[in-house]
Structures are given as C-alpha cells and as structure tokens.
Amino acid sequence: MKNVVVVVSCVLLALVSSCVTAGGASAGDDLDVLVWTDCDTLNGFHIGDDRLTIAIDRDEKTQGAASVRWNEAVGASLFFNDPRGKDVRGFRYFEFDLWIEDPGLFQSAPDWAITIFSQTNDNTNNRRYWQKPNLDLQAGWNSVKLDLDSGIDSNGGLNPSAVRRFRFFVLRGANYMDSQMTFRIDNIRFTKESE
Ligand SMILES: [Ca+2]
After folding, report:
1. Do 19 and 39 belong together in one domain?
2. CA distances to 24, 38, 50 from 56, in Å
3. pLDDT at residue 72 greater than cutoff 90
4. Enclosing domain of residue 128
5. Could you tell me the maximum CA-CA distance found in the chain, to the nearest angstrom?
6. Which residues, chain by chain, have CB under 5 Å from ion ligand 1?
7. Are 10 and 65 part of one and the same domain?
8. 66 alpha carbon to ligand 1 midpoint, in Å?
9. With contact defined as beta carbons under 8 Å apart, do 98 and 142 qualify?
10. Average pLDDT for residues 137-144, to the nearest whole number?
11. Are residues 8 and 97 in the same domain?
12. What's the CA-to-centroid distance between 76 and ligand 1, angstroms?
C-alpha cells in the first residue's frame, strides 16, 4: 500500500510540474499587464536637448524603486527607446503614471502629444499619437490611460507587434518660456480590459 501511495504522489507531482511548465510557456497570452519599463533605471531613456536634465528619482515613485524625473524648459521631448520592441497585440490600453508640477501651466502649452512608434530612428514614421488628449491632470501623480484604438496612426502607422519608442512632447508657449516644469514618469505599461 505504501508503494502505491508513493507512485500516486509521483504521478501527481509530475502532473503539477508539467502544468507549471505549460503555464510559464504561455504566460504572455494570459498577461493582463505588460510592463514596458518600470522606470527604475535610465536604460532606454534620453531627452532631446542637452540643456535639460534627466535623472532617477528614488523618493517620488508609484512603482518599484524609482521614477524617471526630467525638467522641461525649452520644448524638448522625453524618449524611451526599446529596439527589441514589445508585442502589444491583444492589449487595449497604454498606461503610465505622470507627475506634473503645475497642471494649469501644462494645459496652456500650445501643443503636447504622447506618441508610440514601431521604430527608434525619427519622430515621424510608423507612429500612433494622442495630441493633447483630454486628461484630467492634477498636481502630483496622475494615472494616464489611453485607449490604443483612440490614437491616430500616421506615416505607416504603428505596428502593434513591435512597439519600440515612446515620446512625450511638450511645445512651450511664449508666456512661460522662462519657467521650468518638472515631470516624473513611472510604470509605463500596456493593459487589458480587466485593469
Ligand atoms: Ca518605478
């Protein structure tokens, strides 16, 4: 009888371990959240103007160990490049957490846009963008959630099987050219309906 119990236990163990293996192999299909970057390091980030500063901020964050902080003063852009790309087919939303200093000043910018690309080479081709999306931004942290279907495709459009670049662009107005705005970003991700 003891031998039978041992055999049954081994069979059960084998079944459990094969289930775990199968689950791991197909985890991508079941993910509700695909983190693009946790913003805990500056890997992949840069800004389009040497006069601006970019840094890791370990004190102000919404996820993990840090956020990415930058100062926007002359209308440059924050970029995140991921040459390997992310396959976001099956995901509905593009989300991130955004910290802003002065929502009124920010909203008065003549133009600003959030763009994702399927290449890392320029700001024109293979892109999907949201130009001045209607976000109810408050001072401090905001949860930004963009429906991927609501973005505008341009110059070949986004290939959702390979998303390789993110750009946060603000065009500064003459009325506040001399002022500095601080931004922080954290937890850049793609999500499905359930989140
Ligand atoms: Ca983080």
Report:
1. no
2. 32, 11, 17
3. no
4. 33-191
5. 86
6. 38-40, 61, 63-64, 186
7. no
8. 4
9. yes
10. 96
11. no
12. 23
